[in-house]
Amino acid sequence: MDVKMKTSNWIVKDKYVVITGATSGIGQTAAKELAARGANLGIVARNLAKANEVAAQIMASTGGRTNVDVFIADMASQQSIRNVAAEILAKCSKIDVLINNAGAMFISRKLTEDGLEMTWAVNHLAPFLLTKLLMDRLKENEHSRVITTASHGHKMIKNGINFDDLSAERLYSFPKKIVGGPTLRYAETKLANILFTAELAERLKGSGVTAHCFDPGLVSTNFNQNNGLLARMTMAGMKPFSRSPEKGAETLVWLADTDEIADHNGHYYTDMQVTIPTIHAQNMDAAKRLWEVSEEQIRYSETRV
């Protein structure tokens, strides 16, 4: 990857990196590259067989020099996230980097076992909850990082997050096609990722932990392949204009491995450069409100257990 030439110190060497969504796409590509640079990994995945296969490939590619732990969780289930966080904390004496990379989009409106809309639960609340549960371990290091995969798709949201429709009932009443409600819901969760990063950075000041998010660009992966023929056709039509997973993962790897962002906190990046997101993604009042609402949503889930 070209990003190797842009880092002055390989700080990820001998660090422990927890990464979600590492069994395909940019997550898998980033995991392999970070392992090649000497990082030890904890990959959080839903499919045990696939996760074990990827872990074996990574360890083989490094000649056994890299350790890869496999943790299984359903990111749509807050109880599953709580369980996997407990497993990670029991297994890992340190966590240097947490990468919230798992994401999905659902063409039809679905609710999770917690009664939450599925895209919101997986793309926003899952990283929110996992980060909170692992935060004390991250703080035990002199320096550590939380990196979240956002998207330029957040620009589709013209009026900010609709806090009056967090269940997306009205949003999914839009025409049920790839350019309608489901796409806007996905974009809204990516806006949430940026606001979450900004508010997390504020709350982490002085702790030694920094928060970052990035736009991987339009990447040719298996994303959105489980949403029917129209979604697959749309993604196929976009493929000629898409980046490779290697290119899409560059900024993610750079954020985990560079010392150039040592004094950065709360920024959004594109192609290894700080980028200014939309005005709605800069709204710190909205970021604070999002945090408070998210706290309520995870507490509600906890009381249902």
From TrEMBL:
Database matches in Gene3D superfamilies: NAD(P)-binding Rossmann-like Domain
InterPro entries, A to Z: NAD(P)-bd_dom_sf, SDR_fam
Signal peptide interval: none
CDD domains: retinol-DH_like_SDR_c_like
Keywords, comma-separated and alphabetical: Oxidoreductase
Molecular function terms, GO-annotated: oxidoreductase activity
Top-level taxon: Bacteria
UniProt protein name: Short chain dehydrogenase
